[in-house]
């Protein structure tokens, strides 16, 4: 049986697909966090290069990918599409399971897909350093790699819980020449403030974003870079879904259901957005399911409302599903999924009913990840494994019904830097978290009122 | 510029290439460690399956690869050949540098190429468990993966210095369902004996092999499995070089010089052996250079003589380059290169002058690895990086001479589990070792006298 569908490097897409051009309901504009009036391009120039601001605000359907960016993407792209033949056999399912594996990138995840163009545009506009935050470390690694390839410096604020549990992530960033700090850090005013108020905090993406934004805003040669949520990030990730469509053409199958993990939103939207026109124009009966942790169930339990993108209230106010900008999720092992909000583009499509969401406990996620590793070989990142569990459930259901569904898993990265989490699972030390309804209620009471 | 040369999974070789058929000087037979008389097939049956014994003794040029083995190899093979365009640019060299990357396997190195067939043949002959040793952990990971895919149990004796410095390696083996013990362990008589005599020993591959052989020989349902040195291991690795020849055909280049790291010998011979007939029959002017650490310089400083394969003198006595079977190399960061001997097939070709060798200090190796990571993206395993340093030197020399040489690096694996070693390098804590001539002299005085 053919199990690997490869594309030649010439087939890396030449354009990014902008789903904003095809949205049934237009996006509401982002707001200036100070005035709560629509954000202007100038507002953003303190921390972003002009080319990315233009992409952020664009509603053009197709946007050219610079040739210099494609050259670097060739280092690992196109990524392979796999038929999960061994997993299917273990599950005794008539379903066909496919997965596209982004862990072949040097940083081990899909994150370089946007890190590379972001570093490129900043370099082009004369910026010397990028500041960013990272949850699990996937994004920090990716930006470290990208900045070093374009000769920029890089400062990464890494959420404390991950900084402590994933020591090798910061070692990797160091190999690529970046500086990695535990957040909250003593490098920024906001970091020092939080350390004083909450000395034992596990940190959060919201806090780390505030630190990186403050760093960028207070240094002329420095810009800020974000690995999820923003429109231009999701735009860059659409090379995934475009490749995937070509690869599905090679299989002669078409997915019935697509699963991808979802934190702030980058891998999942990148994979599914290019299928949105099929659903809208060709009326394809395709389910797209965003998979999130029960400890931070933004799409399944959050409110669709305007909220700050960060904890300090320095980042733009955006219309999204949110659990409130000062909600700090428990320190689960899928650190990359601990964000209080979700990308506006994705939130909008969920609100319009085109995309679904589901939430999972970490124990069941690691159980699924282990079965995957023992059949397909690859040890998935805990984040990615959130997409495996519901795919396995779907396949087991097909065993009952006899349906030969085509199930797709977006495998966003490997778990080589997450093995202490697997140890915790194997030692029976993983804790499952109930949705902290009361905390979220308190947090949602503090939403801005534009 | 085209930088990635991919083959379809159907192009995975259907036969292994046995260099024994083309050796200018025939191999001397392995000896029974008790009697020092030529080893018989029966001698080996206590610890190996019949199919592998047959391959071990075969002089057939081509040996069929079972279809079930090829099916599993498809999970990551064929591996990509890269043009190192960014590295060339950084070196301002007219040379062309290529590397074939085996780190795309789920275990992160070339080792599954033989682990898969070994597990397969043992499963076919009714064996329930495999015992093995591992240096850096690459081989232990690979066999853990292979045994779990074929439903076998696995016990790994991991050299203590690596066990302590690479904690995530054992976590990975555990994900794949294997048991990993620090060697010398208290599980075997030999291990207990060493622990009593040398409580602070960093361990060695020779000791760990003795433990695994003792475990296998004393349990009926258990066989022993080795990741380098033996003829059948090198045989299985020749899929690498066969793929590489097809890939070089795609580039329209042909290598002038090939570099590969060499411990006991598996990745390097697997990559270069299929080029031996070009050299012998077509008189190709091709240099093949085995790269080893100065701390364990078997090919560059050892004796070509009969010696025990392990420290206890339980493994077969083989004709090879050796530093003496009780030589314990310093605990360098390239744990996979700390073996006192070298594969008989490889040793024979080195002795006949067809293959060269060079030795490197670990600091210069990590410096080269860091330049590689910052240009090509991939963080190499410390072992693999031994091949990068002399390739860079060769390319720099071409800058002086203006030669457009074609330089090949065998990149055997990634360094995701070796990041504490990179930290040691970045912290300036790496120690360079002078060749311990006196120790080796003492050790060589104890060679068996057949």
From TrEMBL, chains A, B:
<dbReference type="InterPro" id="IPR023026">
    <property type="entry name" value="Trp_synth_beta/beta-like"/>
</dbReference>
<dbReference type="InterPro" id="IPR036052">
    <property type="entry name" value="TrpB-like_PALP_sf"/>
</dbReference>
<keyword id="KW-0057">Aromatic amino acid biosynthesis</keyword>
<dbReference type="GO" id="GO:0004834">
    <property type="term" value="F:tryptophan synthase activity"/>
</dbReference>
<comment type="pathway">
    <text>Amino-acid biosynthesis; L-tryptophan biosynthesis; L-tryptophan from chorismate: step 5/5.</text>
</comment>
<feature type="domain" description="Tryptophan synthase beta chain-like PALP">
    <location>
        <begin position="74"/>
        <end position="413"/>
    </location>
</feature>
<keyword id="KW-0663">Pyridoxal phosphate</keyword>
<keyword id="KW-0822">Tryptophan biosynthesis</keyword>
<dbReference type="GO" id="GO:0052684">
    <property type="term" value="F:L-serine hydro-lyase (adding indole, L-tryptophan-forming) activity"/>
</dbReference>
<dbReference type="InterPro" id="IPR006316">
    <property type="entry name" value="Trp_synth_b-like"/>
</dbReference>
<dbReference type="GO" id="GO:0005737">
    <property type="term" value="C:cytoplasm"/>
</dbReference>
<comment type="similarity">
    <text>Belongs to the TrpB family.</text>
</comment>
<feature type="modified residue" description="N6-(pyridoxal phosphate)lysine">
    <location>
        <position position="111"/>
    </location>
</feature>
<dbReference type="InterPro" id="IPR006654">
    <property type="entry name" value="Trp_synth_beta"/>
</dbReference>
<dbReference type="GO" id="GO:0030170">
    <property type="term" value="F:pyridoxal phosphate binding"/>
</dbReference>
<keyword id="KW-0456">Lyase</keyword>
<keyword id="KW-0028">Amino-acid biosynthesis</keyword>
<comment type="subunit">
    <text>Tetramer of two alpha and two beta chains.</text>
</comment>
<dbReference type="InterPro" id="IPR006653">
    <property type="entry name" value="Trp_synth_b_CS"/>
</dbReference>
<comment type="function">
    <text>The beta subunit is responsible for the synthesis of L-tryptophan from indole and L-serine.</text>
</comment>
<protein>
    <recommendedName>
        <fullName>Tryptophan synthase beta chain</fullName>
        <ecNumber>4.2.1.20</ecNumber>
    </recommendedName>
</protein>
<dbReference type="InterPro" id="IPR001926">
    <property type="entry name" value="TrpB-like_PALP"/>
</dbReference>
<dbReference type="Pfam" id="PF00291">
    <property type="entry name" value="PALP"/>
</dbReference>
């Amino acid at each position: 049986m053919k199990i690997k569908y490869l594309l030649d490097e010439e087939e890396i897409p030449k354009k990014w697909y902008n789903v904003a051009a095809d949205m049934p309901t237009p996006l509401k504009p982002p707001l200036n966090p100070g005035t709560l009036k629509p954000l202007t391009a100038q507002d953003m120039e303190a921390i972003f290069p002009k080319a990315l601001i233009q992409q952020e605000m664009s509603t053009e359907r197709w946007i050219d990918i610079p040739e210099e960016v494609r050259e670097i993407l060739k280092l690992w792209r196109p990524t392979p599409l796999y038929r999960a033949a061994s997993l299917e056999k273990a599950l005794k399912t008539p379903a066909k399971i496919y997965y596209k594996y982004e862990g072949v990138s040097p940083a081990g995840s899909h994150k370089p897909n946007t890190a590379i163009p972001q570093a490129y545009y900043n370099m082009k506009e004369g910026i010397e350093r990028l500041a960013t935050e990272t949850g699990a470390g996937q994004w920090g690694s990716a930006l470290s790699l990208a900045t070093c390839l374009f000769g920029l410096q890089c400062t990464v604020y890494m959420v404390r819980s991950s900084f402590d549990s994933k020591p090798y992530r910061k070692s990797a960033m160091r190999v690529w020449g970046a500086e990695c700090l535990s957040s909250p850090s003593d490098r920024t005013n906001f970091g020092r403030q939080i350390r004083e108020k909450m000395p034992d905090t596990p940190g959060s993406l919201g806090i780390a974003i505030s630190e990186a934004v403050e760093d960028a805003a207070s240094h002329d040669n420095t810009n800020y870079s974000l690995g999820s949520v923003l429109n231009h990030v999701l735009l860059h990730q659409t090379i995934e879904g475009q490749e995937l469509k070509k690869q599905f053409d090679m299989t002669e199958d078409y997915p019935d259901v697509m699963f991808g993990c979802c934190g702030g939103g980058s891998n999942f939207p990148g994979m599914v957005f290019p299928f949105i026109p099929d659903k809208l124009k060709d009326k394809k009966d395709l389910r797209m399911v965003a998979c999130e942790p029960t400890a931070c169930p933004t799409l399944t339990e959050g409110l669709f409302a305007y909220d700050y993108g960060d904890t300090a209230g320095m980042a733009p106010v955006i219309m999204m599903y949110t659990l409130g900008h000062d909600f700090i999720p428990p320190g689960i092992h899928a650190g990359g999924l601990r964000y209080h909000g979700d990308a506006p583009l994705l939130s909008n499509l969920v609100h319009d009913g085109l995309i679904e969401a589901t939430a999972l406990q970490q124990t069941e996620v690691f159980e699924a990840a282990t079965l995957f590793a023992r059949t397909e070989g690859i040890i998935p990142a805990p984040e990615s494994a959130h997409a495996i569990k519901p795919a396995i459930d779907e396949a087991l259901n097909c065993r009952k019904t006899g349906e030969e569904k085509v199930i797709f898993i977006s495998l966003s990265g490997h778990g080589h830097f997450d093995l202490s989490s697997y140890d915790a699972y194997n030692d029976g030390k993983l804790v499952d978290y109930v949705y902290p309804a009361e905390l979220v209620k308190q947090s949602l009471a503090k939403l801005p009122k534009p």
